[in-house]
Structure formats: structure tokens, C-alpha cells
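Risk register update: the risk that structure generation would not scale has been downgraded. Supporting records follow, first protein first.
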Amino acid sequence: MRDTLYANVPFKLNELAHHYGPNVHLVGNPFLLSQLATLCAKGTLQPQINRLVEQLYADLVKTVINAEFPRKMVTLPTRMIDSTPLGIYQGEVVDPQLRVVTVNIARAGTLPSQVTYDLLNFTVDPSLVRQDHIIMSRMIDAAQAVVGSEIGGAKIGGDVDDAFVLFPDPMGATGGSLSTAITLYKTKVPGRARRIITLNLIVTPEYLRRMTTEHPDVIIYALRLDRGLSPPEVFGTAPGLLWEKERGLDDRQYIVPGGGGFGEIMNNAYV
């Protein structure tokens, strides 16, 4: 009989309490919040910007894997098996036979999706991992306010039947781009996804309202909620308690306090 100590490995997500619904997870991680604060600071420049994005997403993806991916029991001979018949490990691991698709929403999502893709290839069977690519752009009006988003092109490598579909996009501002991309996968890509998950560094109350309204089945993981333009009575209340008054977007649809346009700062391309 083998030791069953790791037959049921517990994992408890540390997250902030809120009123946005069960599919929203505001990850409570002081270390990651410290890194994110540095990333958003005015004096932080390349190459530190992209290194921080890589590190933040590596940890955020691991959080999602721990919390969302199914596991299976394995019995694996270790190198000690040549010395003793007891040299066998038995316990839970992440089920390697999972289909996973990570979606690069260019341009802010390019590096996060690549980090996600590389990490997944070390976690599950690489033949079951795929990276798709979508070119999207914000549509703005004469006052430079965002009025929507449009898809300029896409490279989608197959169906999503029974797959975990991940959208690693740093800034959940209006939710327009992500909502459009998710709708594309639900209506135009063959198969039914097992689970759709967004991975954001910063989200706004406006983003959460749109996503939970238009895609209530989607699971959201975010490191930070920014609602800096809310009226004073909001501050100090639990997130979502006064959701109708919470505001995180300025008139140009940029996040406050935020960190500037991540597509711009990550690519040194301010257009």
C-alpha cells in the first residue's frame, strides 16, 4: 500500500471579497500587487516593463491552473526505484490530457499569451495546447472616446471542443475587445469550450459589468480592481456593493489609477 498523503491536494484561492458574482476572482497576492504597482509606476521603462509583465503572467497562469484545471492520480517510479521497490511517488497532478487554447489579442495580449502558451506546454501534453491570434483595434469618435472594437484579422487553428480557452489580456477597461473576441469563439469557432477564462492584470467595474452581463459563463481572474474615479462614498466599501456608482474609466476610456496604455508601453509604439 502506498502513502496517500497527496491523493487529494487542497488549494484555496486567496481573493478579495466582493459583490460581482461567483465567476469573478480578485486575486489577493501582496507580492504580485507589489510587482504590478512597479509596472504601473511613471518611472518604469523598458526592458523592466516586459520583464514584469512576464513574471506577473507566469504567476497568474499558475493560479488559474491550480484553481481551475482538473487533476488525476498518478503512480510514478522515481530514480530510487532501482534501489528499492518503495521508490514510487503516488499522488495528484494536473491532468496532462487537457485541451487548452490561449488567445493572443494583439497587441497588449501578445506577450501575456506567449508566456501562457510556454507555461502550458510544460504543464499538459504539448500536442493538446494551441495559441490563436486575433488582431483587434478600438474604434474612437471625434472626441477620441472609445465607442467599440473591431476585428482586423484572426488566425484560429481549429475547434475548441472541450477545451479550456484562456484570454490573457492585461487591461480590462471597457470589455469591448474581450467581449467581441469571446463572441467570435462562441459563434464562429466549431465546438463548445469546456471553460472560458480571462486573465487580467487590472480591471474596472465597467469591465466587470459588461463581461458578467454579456458573458455570464466566463470566469474572470484579475490581480487588481481600479475604481479611482468613483465618488467618495464608494471608497472603503466592498467591491461591487455600490457597483452602480463605481467608476474606473476616464472620458477617453483609460483606467484610473491604471498604468497607461499597456499596448503602447509594452511595444514603445504610441499610436
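Supporting record for the second protein:
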Amino acid sequence: MRVVLNVIWLIFGGLWLALGYVLAGIICCILIITIPFGIASFRIASYALWPFGRTTVPNPDAGVPSLLGNVIWIVFAGWWLALGHIITGIAQCLTIIGIPLGIANFKLIPISLLPLGYRIVSTDRPFADARAYAE
């Protein structure tokens, strides 16, 4: 079922949302100081391209730099990416088939606003904790 939802997602909004993240990542990689934002944007682009079967978990190693980076991200890129998720999610919820896609869009809003300090993990693992992936 995940593959079917991911293919429908890709066709009806996932591709253009992922392209928005890629564009944000390219813009962020222009300056050396904003490369971490670009890397986070590319990571979220892959998540926005194929979201079903994956989730986000907090990274226990993230600290104050992630918090400060998230504030900068919200001001320069996060708000318009979140707006894209809101508009796409509302449009997808207008149909019965699109409701799961709209809900997935709404679940992507927090990671689009605060990308630093989170990891994207597979939901196949019963305990999707960031410490389990350190081994």
C-alpha cells in the first residue's frame, strides 16, 4: 500500500514539493555558511518525494546551533515551504482519494519549518529512535 500511496503522492504534488526543497538547497549551498541548510533541504526533498513508510525523529545530539539555525531557516525558507504544504494539503483534501495525501502534507509542515535537529527514518523499525541508528 505504501508504494501505491507514494506513486499517487509523486504524481499529485510530491514532485513539485521536492523540487521546491531542491531549489532551496541549491540557493543555500551558494554560501559556505549556509551549506548545512542546503544539506537539510536536500534531505527533506527526498522525504517529500517519497514520504510514506518514513517518519522523523528528534536527533538527541542536536543542540543550540540547531535551534538557532532553525530560527534563521524559518525566516528565509521555512515559511514559504510550509505554505506550499498547506496549499497542496488543502487541495488534496478536497477529494476522498486525496485525504491521505493531504494529511501527509500537513505532517510535513513541522519538518519544513524546523529541519535541523531531526532525522528521517524508516517506519519499518519498531523503535525509530535516532540512537538505534548510531550503531
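Helices lie at 2-28, 35-49, 64-92, 99-113. On this basis the risk owner (M.S.) recommends closing the item.
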